[in-house]
Structures are given as structure tokens and as C-alpha cells.
């Protein structure tokens, strides 16, 4: 069962074979997925991704994920603490699916009720 959602920052670090990212990934690899939003961001920077995405479950944006991202946008907008659009979709997906978001991006700390593994 998937318990973790990998953010784009982690995927990029895995492509670059960052030791800390590899250690974290190895601890959770069987329980980790990512999103089409992160796949899009990754593919903006890399023409090929050494099979990384092929070895992951990649969640499409569901109507429930989109609704949660919309709620999240309104919450953050009301506090004047917006995330980027793609990060809002990623965080909304994590909250909607009750997954722990694994990231190096401390901007996600703004999101209430988001289980976060920040390293």
C-alpha cells in the first residue's frame, strides 16, 4: 500500500544520485508514489529520467485531488501564503489520499493537515 508521495525535489535529487535522497528513498521505496504534476516538472529539466518514473506509481489528478487542491488554494490565499500552482496540486493530492509528502521544499510547511517528511 502506498504511504508516501515523492515531490519533484526528491525526484530531481534521485536523478542526480544525491546520497541523502537515495537513503530516504531506499527506506520507503516500496511504499512511494509520485504525481503527474511532479512527472511534468521533472520532464521540464530532463529529457530522460533513467527509468525513475517507470519504476514508480504515478497518480493522475483525480476529481477528489483537484477539489482538495482547490480547498488548499483558498486556505493559503486567505492567509497570504500561496504555493506555486504545481505544488498546490501535489499537496492537494497528498492530503486527498492521506499520504506523507516527502520533499526538500520547506514551502510545504505552510500547509495545514499535511503529513510531511522534510529532509
Task: Explain the layout of strands and helices.
Blueprint: E1 4-6, H1 8-15, H2 19-28, E2 32-35, H3 36-45, E3 57-59, H4 63-79, H5 85-96, E4 100-103, E5 116-118
Parallel strand pairs: 1-2, 1-4, 2-3, 4-5
Helix pairs in contact: 1-2, 4-5
EC number: 3.1.-.-
Function: Toxic component of a toxin-antitoxin (TA) system. An RNase.
Keywords: Hydrolase, Magnesium, Metal-binding, Nuclease, Toxin, Toxin-antitoxin system
Radius of gyration, taken over Cα atoms and rounded to an integer in Å: 14 Å
Order of helices and strands: EHHEHEHHEE
What is the count of structural domains?
A: 1
Provide the residue-averaged pLDDT: 95
Describe, in short, the structure shown.
By secondary structure, the chain is α/β, with parallel strands linked by helices. The chain has helices at residues 8-15, 19-28, 36-45, 63-79, 85-96; strands at residues 4-6, 32-35, 57-59, 100-103, 116-118.
Description of the molecule:
This protein is an alpha/beta fold and 119 residues long. It has a single domain (4-118), classed as Rossmann fold. 48% of the residues lie in helices and 14% in strands. The protein has a five-stranded parallel β-sheet. Helix 1 (8-15) packs across helix 2 (19-28). The protein is globular and about 40 Å long. The two termini are 23 Å apart.
Sum up the structure in keywords.
single chain; 119 residues; alpha/beta; Rossmann fold; 5-stranded parallel sheet; 14% strand; magnesium
Amino acid at each position: 500500500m502506498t504511504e508516501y508521495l515523492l515531490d519533484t525535489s526528491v525526484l530531481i535529487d534521485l536523478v542526480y544520485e544525491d546520497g541523502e535522497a537515495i537513503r530516504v528513498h531506499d527506506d520507503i521505496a516500496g511504499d512511494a508514489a509520485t504525481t503527474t504534476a511532479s512527472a511534468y516538472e521533472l520532464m521540464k529539466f530532463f529529457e530522460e529520467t533513467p527509468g525513475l518514473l517507470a519504476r514508480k506509481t504515478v497518480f493522475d489528478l483525480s476529481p477528489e485531488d483537484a477539489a482538495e487542491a482547490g480547498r488548499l488554494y483558498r486556505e493559503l490565499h486567505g492567509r497570504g501564503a500561496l504555493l506555486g500552482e504545481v505544488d498546490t496540486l501535489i499537496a492537494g493530492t497528498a492530503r486527498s489520499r492521506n499520504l506523507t509528502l516527502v520533499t526538500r521544499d520547506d514551502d510545504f510547511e505552510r500547509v495545514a493537515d499535511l503529513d510531511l517528511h522534510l529532509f
